[in-house]
């Protein structure tokens, strides 16, 4: 497996919502059952599946759903063998999510604190009616590189497997909020992962036994990020299609639909920016205005996206721009 790098000059993707504001409330309490010190009252065991609903604050569990693997939870001694097996897991299959306009999953963000440090947590949401088996991996590429060399002590990927045999209504999502945006060395020191690029890999098997997979990059935002869904500037996590970029050098982003639906958005505008220490001699989009405060970032592409409003899914946006070299994606 080649080293996965996203290192060149930074590309920023900013999302602007054309909205009419509307208030809403949403619970953000951590419910992870795959923790030795889990305090969530909804957990009956470490294999409990937590279900959240997109149209309410309700939480539920199902006796027909189980978490059958979580390598980070199980690998308490941080064995390099288990880490390597997780890194080398294959998510490259013929049937890909990119053949549809939406993804049946997304990642919600929430604030966390541990040992005096503040950081971002990730809640992986899978549309419950879309799968009977699922597996996914979350891996910090800043620390987890080639599995054929020395493994950094800070590298600790999470590989998860789920199985179920029931279906719930269209508003139900399996919630897996166990992953946190920090690294921990062998001495136990915690360092927030702000600015690090993660690789998120997902495979879902439907009732017809068809397996669909995809891999996506996302960037860990700072802990000061606005995570209040009642505000239009609430931060959403965009997923950037790794395969489309590697194979076609196209930037394909997926934007969570849940936030734009709450604020009655009818159109999304996406800006692609290049962040460099040197100012651009000519900015072809200077009249568009910027939705950021970085003096060295210049807009290199603007695109409006219309979409179907499927709650909890991701909206697919294809930015028709060719890049060069290796790209870093900041969202």
Keywords:
13-stranded antiparallel β-sheet, mainly beta, 331 residues, 8% helix, disordered C terminus, 4-stranded mixed β-sheet
If you had to describe this structure to a student in words, what would you say it looks like?
Strands 4-18-15-14-13-12-7-8-3-2-9-6-5 form a 13-stranded antiparallel β-sheet. A four-stranded mixed β-sheet has the order 17-16-1-19, with no helix packed on it. Strands 10-11 form a two-stranded antiparallel ribbon. Helix content is 8%, strand content 40%. The longest helix has 8 residues, at 80-87. By secondary structure, it is mainly beta. It has helices at 71-74, 80-87, 242-248, 257-262, and strands at 10-18, 48-53, 59-70, 102-103, 105-114, 117-127, 133-140, 158-164, 172-180, 182-184, 190-192, 197-205, 211-219, 239-241, 251-256, 267-275, 297-305, 314-319, 328-330. The model is unreliable at 1-28 and 322-331 (pLDDT under 50).
């Amino acid at each position: 497996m080649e080293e996965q790098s996203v290192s060149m000059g930074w590309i920023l993707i900013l999302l602007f919502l054309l909205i009419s504001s509307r208030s809403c409330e949403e619970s953000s309490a951590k419910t992870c059952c795959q923790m030795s010190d889990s305090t969530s009252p909804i957990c009956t065991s470490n294999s409990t599946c937590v279900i959240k609903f997109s149209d309410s604050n309700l939480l539920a569990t199902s006796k027909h759903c189980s978490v059958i693997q979580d390598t980070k939870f199980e690998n308490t001694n941080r064995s390099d063998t288990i880490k390597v097996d997780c890194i080398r897991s294959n998510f490259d299959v013929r049937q890909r999510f990119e053949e549809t306009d939406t993804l049946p999953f997304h990642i919600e963000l929430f604030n966390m604190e541990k040992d005096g440090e503040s950081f971002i947590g990730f809640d992986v949401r899978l549309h419950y009616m879309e799968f009977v088996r699922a597996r996914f991996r979350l891996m910090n590429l800043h620390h987890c590189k080639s599995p054929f060399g020395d493994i950094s002590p800070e590298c600790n990927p999470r590989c998860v497997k789920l199985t179920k045999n029931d279906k719930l209504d269209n508003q139900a999502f399996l919630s897996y909020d166990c992953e946190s945006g920090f690294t921990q060395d062998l001495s136990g020191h915690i360092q927030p992962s702000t600015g690090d690029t993660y690789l998120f890999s997902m495979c879902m098997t439907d009732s017809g036994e068809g397996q669909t997979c995809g891999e996506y990059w996302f960037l860990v935002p700072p802990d000061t990020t606005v995570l209040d869904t009642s505000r239009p500037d609430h931060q959403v996590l965009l997923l950037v299609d790794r395969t489309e970029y590697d194979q076609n050098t196209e930037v394909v982003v997926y934007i969570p639909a849940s936030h734009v639906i709450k604020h009655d958005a009818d159109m999304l505008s996406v800006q692609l920016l290049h962040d460099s220490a040197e100012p651009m001699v000519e900015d072809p989009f200077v009249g568009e205005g910027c939705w950021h405060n970085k003096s060295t970032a210049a807009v290199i592409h603007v695109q409006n996206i219309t979409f179907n409003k499927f709650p909890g899914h991701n909206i697919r946006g294809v930015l028709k721009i060719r890049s060069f070299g290796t790209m870093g994606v900041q969202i």
